[in-house]
């Protein structure tokens, strides 16, 4: 059983991660919020024994073995480095940081400390994407040539806040959503992006020059090109994830979501067939792999270096949207 501390009394922990930790047998022993009142209220609501107001107090607690970090993005670097240097394993929300230099420093600190570091790209835990990855690896669509991702939806009022009005915190749709597309494409394809070109959109929801929607194309090392549409402003869109190969296509529907739902259709010369899916809570899958990695029995579903890749791609997409040109994706790893 892993004993967890939470850095950030966050909505995502409330809605998804606390229950997932407990579902896989973990225990949450402490939560940190800079507001003592908020922290105490959050701890009481969720049956957490301790609430503290500093990172040092949380990572210095001998009862805490692992830390889940879900603060705003500009705070991640210092919090991750403090946690790993104290010997705690870390699961950090995406994007890892707001700069590649910071993200690489976080990964290096975890390696130096000999602890497990993972990025919470939850879509790797989806049955849909796992089935697509396995089908591609088995050669069922031949050589992958193209992909399309629709990850546009509507950002609910209770999540709007800093994502729409704080560039310094890593707000905007690209660092919130496009990074998920990148990671899912890398996971499913076993391939890495090398360049990006994109347009941002300002649909009236985001402020301070932040994009609330984006469309673009990524080119991968294999030559595959992937189109993406991400948005906070489309109330009635349906998400999708498609991979088209030389011998077939995989069509994922309603799959770019936190929920354990969706379907995958394989289309080829034989017609159409639904792939069998073993749906399970995405965050539970993430945490099971994390616990196994702590026990030396595998790797996290999405490691720290994977988080660097998705951040590098997001930053390249942002730069392309600002400049109008194609931008190379370089991680510096």
From TrEMBL:
<dbReference type="InterPro" id="IPR036291">
    <property type="entry name" value="NAD(P)-bd_dom_sf"/>
</dbReference>
<dbReference type="GO" id="GO:0033712">
    <property type="term" value="F:1,5-anhydro-D-fructose reductase (1,5-anhydro-D-mannitol-forming) activity"/>
</dbReference>
<feature type="domain" description="GFO/IDH/MocA-like oxidoreductase">
    <location>
        <begin position="129"/>
        <end position="250"/>
    </location>
</feature>
<dbReference type="InterPro" id="IPR050463">
    <property type="entry name" value="Gfo/Idh/MocA_oxidrdct_glycsds"/>
</dbReference>
<dbReference type="Pfam" id="PF01408">
    <property type="entry name" value="GFO_IDH_MocA"/>
</dbReference>
<feature type="domain" description="Gfo/Idh/MocA-like oxidoreductase N-terminal">
    <location>
        <begin position="3"/>
        <end position="121"/>
    </location>
</feature>
<protein>
    <submittedName>
        <fullName>1,5-anhydro-D-fructose reductase (1,5-anhydro-D-mannitol-forming)</fullName>
        <ecNumber>1.1.1.292</ecNumber>
    </submittedName>
</protein>
<dbReference type="InterPro" id="IPR055170">
    <property type="entry name" value="GFO_IDH_MocA-like_dom"/>
</dbReference>
<dbReference type="InterPro" id="IPR000683">
    <property type="entry name" value="Gfo/Idh/MocA-like_OxRdtase_N"/>
</dbReference>
<keyword id="KW-0560">Oxidoreductase</keyword>
<dbReference type="Pfam" id="PF22725">
    <property type="entry name" value="GFO_IDH_MocA_C3"/>
</dbReference>
